[in-house]
Amino acid sequence: MEKSDLRKIYKEKRQQLSSKDIEELQENIYQQIYDLEISNIKNVHVFLSLEKFKEINTNPIIDYFRSQNKKIVVSKSDFTNNSLTHFYLEKDTAIALNKYGIPEPVNAVQVSESKLDLVFVPLLISDELHYRVGYGKGFYDRFLAYCRKDCKKIGLNFFKPIQKISDSNEFDIALDEVIYPK
Ligand SMILES: Nc1nc2c(c(=O)[nH]1)N(C=O)[C@@H](CNc1ccc(C(=O)N[C@@H](CCC(=O)O)C(=O)O)cc1)CN2
Ligand SMILES: Nc1ncnc2c1ncn2[C@@H]1O[C@H](COP(=O)(O)OP(=O)(O)OP(=O)(O)O)[C@@H](O)[C@H]1O
């Protein structure tokens, strides 16, 4: 199936999840994250959840990596050119919602993509080759292209990958792994 159809279907499927469904699915995903081997990781990039799209709550993920003495990095989105810039999220960093409802850091220290060791990637659906469909603006394809080759890219989703996204293209960067409830 094509990205545009998949985007519609999985946006809708996510909206249909109840709070109870989400709590259970999230817990399963968190447990898999706590089992990751992270001894060589210093800087972890995490997305700050968009409530209107019922994304997984990443706050427990942030708390976990902080408890393991890892530094957290989050992004600000520029919708004029669909690019992301990245900042350290300290315990006292202020967060504000941008006009799309995405939480973003205020007055934080900028970080280059080359410093990132692990990136958690939001997605609507992925396939068995670990390609993904997002909200369709190409933010993450552009961002991941700047990351180091050995930076680990892990997708998070409530839904099991499908067999194949038929129109993946040369810009699409395959993830190393996708965590979904098992
Ligand atoms: N938490 C989180 N942050 C993220 C992403 C994400 O998937 N999740 N993104 C992943 O790439 C980028 C943001 N992508 C977004 C794309 C569209 C809309 C949005 O509100 N779209 C409106 C229509 C907007 C318009 O074009 O005018 C909509 O769908 O209603 C929000 C975020 C960067 N930050
Ligand atoms: N590195 C890039 N350079 C230039 N254009 C790009 C790049 N990556 C993606 N694009 C373009 O961005 C648009 C959206 O890409 P795509 O449909 O793959 O988005 P998506 O992965 O679903 O969205 P997102 O990454 O925002 O969650 C496409 O037209 C694609 O060609």
Please give a structural write-up.
With 182 residues, the chain is an alpha/beta fold. Strand 8 (125-126) and strand 9 form a beta hairpin. The chain is globular, with a radius of gyration of 16 Å. The chain has four helices and eleven strands, in the order H-H-E-H-E-E-E-E-E-E-E-E-H-E-E. It has one domain: NagB/RpiA/CoA transferase-like (Rossmann fold, 3-Layer(aba) Sandwich), CATH 3.40.50. Ligand FFO binds at residues 47-50, 55, 77, 84, 100, 102, 122, 134-135, 137, 139-140.
CATH architecture: 3-Layer(aba) Sandwich
Chain-averaged pLDDT: 98
CATH fourth-tier homologous superfamily:
NagB/RpiA/CoA transferase-like
Task: Report the biggest beta sheet as strand number plus sense, adding barrel if it closes.
Answer: 7 strands, mixed
How many E strands? 11
Task: List low-pLDDT spans.
Answer: none
Helix content: 25-40%
| Strand ordering within the main sheet | 6-3-2-1-7-10-11
H/E element sequence: HHEHEEEEEEEEHEE
The DSSP helix count reads: 4
**Spatial extent as radius of gyration:** 16 Å
Counted up, domains total 1
Specify the CATH class. Alpha Beta
Features:
182 residues, alpha/beta, Rossmann fold, two-stranded antiparallel sheet, 4 helices, binds ligand FFO, binds adenosine-5'-triphosphate, nucleotide-binding, FTHF_cligase-like_sf, FTHF_cligase
Secondary-structure blueprint of this entry?
Layout: H1 3-15, H2 19-34, E1 43-45, H3 59-67, E2 71-78, E3 83-88, E4 94-97, E5 103-106, E6 110-111, E7 118-122, E8 125-126, E9 132-133, H4 139-146, E10 152-156, E11 177-179
Parallel strand pairs: 1-2, 1-7, 7-10, 10-11
Antiparallel strand pairs: 2-3, 3-6, 4-5, 8-9
The protein binds the ligand Nc1nc2c(c(=O)[nH]1)N(C=O)[C@@H](CNc1ccc(C(=O)N[C@@H](CCC(=O)O)C(=O)O)cc1)CN2 and adenosine-5'-triphosphate.
